[in-house]
């Protein structure tokens, strides 16, 4: 096990770098080694896993991931943090299994990862972009078999929600296309510096096959977006523009075996896929 970062060392590092954590980049760094160990334990990595970590920041989580995986590829948007990370890692015990990519995770492709093919995602995601980053990675990296991410508590609830839940919505339905998603425990706000205004939660993901459908992923997601854009309306009304008219929406819904008077929050991703197949 590598020596992990504690609160005092984080402060010293931040001072050295003249770091002013920004809200825009969701820069809240974990200062509690116990939380970092817990994340790695719940991630349940194998020695042959290639891990992708988004937003390593000062390296709190990275230091714990390195001894637990074959390789760790980190993607950090902040050039100062990306530049400093190899130095911090070297200071904590040499590791030759780290690749640092200084880039925006929203824009990366597999080809940007220096030939590494990630099998697991483990990250304390930047909160303002956690859902789009997660969906982007699941889409561009089919090799990802599992994930353990820390996100804002409310987002964890939404990602893991199933049909019929009050918080089931676009993130839940889209994430279900790629993975079985579960909450994996709460994390209090005091483990971060600076302390954020919200609590966090762990979310575990296990890759699943997408629903069998003749519709494309984009076509299915277009139905999801339309259904939840007006979540109080019945599907017949919410999908009127998508289908052309409300009667056409009703015909498509009936052909898909879905009651036109229900709402999107009742539908599984499989039902959304069946509806997408019926687009007039
Ligand atoms: N993993 C570190 C930890 O636990 O202490 C830092 C986590 S902090 C919540 C989020 C990190 O993501 C920051 O280092 C921030 O600079 C980085 N970040 C923000 N937006 C990003 C993006 N679009 N792509 C890559 N990294 C990003």
From TrEMBL:
Organism superkingdom: Bacteria
InterPro entries: KsgA/Erm (IPR001737), rRNA_Ade_diMease-like_C (IPR023165), rRNA_Ade_Mease_Trfase_CS (IPR020596), rRNA_Ade_methylase_Trfase_N (IPR020598), rRNA_adenine_dimethylase (IPR011530), SAM-dependent_MTases_sf (IPR029063)
Residue ranges occupied by any Ribosomal RNA adenine methylase transferase N-terminal domain in the UniProt entry: 35-209
Endoplasmic reticulum in keyword set: no
Principal EC category: transferase
Molecular function in Gene Ontology: 16S rRNA (adenine(1518)-N(6)/adenine(1519)-N(6))-dimethyltransferase activity; RNA binding
Primary location group: cytoplasm
Cell compartments where the protein resides: Cytoplasm
Catalytic reaction list: adenosine(1518)/adenosine(1519) in 16S rRNA + 4 S-adenosyl-L-methionine = N(6)-dimethyladenosine(1518)/N(6)-dimethyladenosine(1519) in 16S rRNA + 4 S-adenosyl-L-homocysteine + 4 H(+)
Binding of S-adenosyl-L-methionine, residues: 28, 30, 55, 76, 104, 124
Annotated EC: 2.1.1.182
Keywords carried by this UniProt record: Cytoplasm, Methyltransferase, RNA-binding, rRNA processing, S-adenosyl-L-methionine, Transferase
Family: Belongs to the class I-like SAM-binding methyltransferase superfamily. rRNA adenine N(6)-methyltransferase family. RsmA subfamily.
Protein name (database record): Ribosomal RNA small subunit methyltransferase A
Organism (species): Nonomuraea solani
